[in-house]
Design a protein that fits this description.
mainly alpha, membrane, 2 helices, transmembrane helix, about 0% strand, single chain, elongated, transmembrane
């Protein structure tokens, strides 16, 4: 019975890890993908415009 108690924690952790990975893969895409992509694109555009604005301010000084 010692082998059962030795193998149980790794088996439980492996099952949990597989469940986490499956959940992550299934949650990719779907109905909210376009909304999430638009939010990321907007954040990148804001960061880029802020960087260009600060670079422009440095050149005018």
């Amino acid at each position: 019975m010692d082998y059962v108690s030795a193998l149980l924690p790794p088996v439980v952790m492996a099952a949990f890890f597989i469940g986490v990975i499956v959940t992550m893969v299934k949650s990719q895409g779907g109905a909210n993908k376009a909304k999430e992509d638009a939010a990321v694109d907007a954040a990148l555009a804001r960061a880029e415009s802020a960087r260009q604005t600060s670079k422009g301010d440095d050149a005018q000084s």
